[in-house]
Amino acid sequence: MPSPPPNRPAPQGLLHPRNRHRGRYDFPQLISSSPALAAFVRTNPFGDLSVDFANPVAVKALNQALLRHFYGVAHWDIPAGYLCPPIPGRADYVHHVADLLAASNGGVVPRGPGVRVLDVGVGANCIYPLIGHHEYGWQFVGSDIDAVALRAAQQLVAANGLAKAIEGRLQPDARRVFDGIIGPGEVFDATLCNPPFHASAAEAAAGTQRKTANLGTARGPRPVLNFGGQAAELWAPGGEAAFVRRLVLESQQRPTACFWYTTLVSKKETLPGLHRALHQAGALETQTIDMAQGQKKSRLVAWTFLTPAQQAAWRRARWSPQRG
C-alpha cells in the first residue's frame, strides 16, 4: 500500500492500538474544543478538511486543539522557532513504552505516580510528559540542555496544574545525557529520548528543505520550518548515531538505575552500530520496535541490564501493588 499524502493522518494500522489519533482528524470536534483552530481549517485537494502543514502557526493551532481535546491540556504554547511536534507519533512512542513495561509485568501496564519516567530532551513543548501523565498517570522528569526550552516547559506544567507530576531538570553539560541528571540511588522505570537527527546545522537545513518540498510548498532557499526546532533539537556533533552511543555508554555506567532504557532511531543506518554498542555494553535484553506515521518511519530501541532476578525484585517493589 502506498504511503498516505502528508496532509492526511496515517491509516489505522500504522499507529498503536491505544493511540487516540488512529482515524482522520475530526476537525469539527477539534474546533468545538479549540475554536481558534477554525481559522486554519480548509478543504484540501483530496476533499477532506485539513490544515496547511507547511504553516507553522496552523500546525501549532492543531497541536493546541489535539492536546486540549484528547489530553486535557488547557494551556499549551511554545516560544517562536522551537519544535512543534506531530502529536500522533509522540503518543505512539509513549504507548509502545507502556507495552514494554506491561510485557515485563505479566501483561499489566504499570500505572500511577509510582511509575517514574525520564524524558531526555524534554524540549519547550513537553509533549511526552503531558501525554504520558494523562494516559497512564506516570510521573516524569524532563531534562534539557536549553534553559529557555526548559523554562517554557516548566511554565506549561505550572499553567496546567501538573507541577507535582512533571519536574524539569537542566543538563549543565551538553556532552552528557544522564550524568548530572540522575541522582545517586535514583531510579526510573523507563527513559524516553528523541535524539537530534542531524550531525550539523547545514545538514539540518538541507533536511528542512527536503521536508518542505515533500509537502509541496517549497518557498525558496529559506524554507518555513513548519515544525520548527532549535539547534539542540535538530542536530548534535556526530548526529543521531553518536548521540545514541552516548546514551548506551552512560546507561552502562548505571545499569540498575532504570528498568528499560529507550530511544527513538530515525535512521535505519544507525541500528547496526547501536546494536553493536549494546552488545559490547552488556545489555541483557534488547528490543527494536518499528513505528510509522504516514510517510515517516522510525524505530524504538529498548534495552535493560537487569537480570531476571533483578526484574522480579523490581516488579515486587514498584509495580505489584498496582495490580488488580
UniProtKB/TrEMBL annotation:
Name this protein carries in UniProt: Ribosomal RNA large subunit methyltransferase F
Keywords of the record: Cytoplasm, Methyltransferase, rRNA processing, S-adenosyl-L-methionine, Transferase
Functional description taken from the UniProt entry: Specifically methylates the adenine in position 1618 of 23S rRNA.
Major subcellular site: cytoplasm
One family name in Pfam for this protein: Methyltransf_10
Family label: Belongs to the methyltransferase superfamily. METTL16/RlmF family.
Catalytic activity reported: adenosine(1618) in 23S rRNA + S-adenosyl-L-methionine = N(6)-methyladenosine(1618) in 23S rRNA + S-adenosyl-L-homocysteine + H(+)
Matching SUPFAM superfamilies: S-adenosyl-L-methionine-dependent methyltransferases
